[in-house]
Please model this.
Amino acid sequence: MTELIKAHLDHKRVWRDFDYCYPVISRRSHGVSLGVNLNPDKVCNFDCVYCEVDRLSPPKRKDLDLDQLDRELGVLLDLTASGGIYDVPPFDSARPEHRRLNDIAFSGDGEPTTVREFPEAVARVARLKAHRGLDQVKLVLITDSSRLQAPEVVKGLDTLMANQGEIWAKLDAGTEAYYREICRSKVPFERILDNLLATARRWPTVIQTLFLEWKGQGPDDAELEAYCQRLERLQREGGQLQAVQLYTVARPTPEPEARPLRRPDMDAIAAHLRSRIPCLPLEVYYGPEEWA
Ligand code: SF4
Model:
């Protein structure tokens, strides 16, 4: 295992004694991503079978202190700007070309858009970024797509997209039944699709899809066909799909029956997607066997 790969694998959402902000080396961006965890309480309105969040142990804290979040992010921005972060494991093993700050991502132990303070948090992070002149650094929202049309969320998205924003929105299924099986959410699948369409009509949207082996099986042909039809419909009805990011399980999860798809299976799904929707950029991220 190379040192760089070790750095990729060391994807823990913790930094020293911080409660909200953490740095990672991101496979997607080939650089450093600063995570902003608005859900230290681990609250999510999904219960994905592949979720890595350990919800059996109690959260370190349940509240969101935006002043502390500001301070933590400020420290990490300074540390990346000075290069001091690359003296600290695992960042000391990053290749020289990956020693750059790519983005600040709202991600973490739950769904960021469930937080009442979401628009204020986005505004504060955008201000911190602007004050440092970091116009090349993206602001990313990683979301399960369940609340994209809530007025306060749209307000936060307006700010995000005015500050080099990107929306990475989850769509893990083509059918209601598979969505219920994998995402185990009470949010109706139709609402997810409706939210995606409304959002993608307004802003370019990246679709994030995780396919996996669940109870010994990957998604079958009918599921993949239904999934392709969802993407086609989003485009046909005016949604701007920037790209699809196709993932599988990357790290151990609390559910032993949630396993990564192997590379040939991921390649077959990617080939199917490319043949069905050739105009849609596709990024494929393989599972841990690729790092062995
Ligand atoms: S949406 Fe994300 S945080 Fe929520 S259960 Fe699914 S993987 Fe976990």
User: Anything to note?
Assistant: Helices lie at 3-9, 66-82, 118-131, 151-161, 176-183, 189-202, 221-236, 263-276. The domain at 171-292 is CATH 3.20.20.70 (TIM Barrel). The beta strands are 21-26, 31-36, 101-106, 138-143, 165-170, 205-210, 213-214, 241-247, 258-259, 282-284. The CA atoms of residues 2 and 291 lie 9 Å apart.
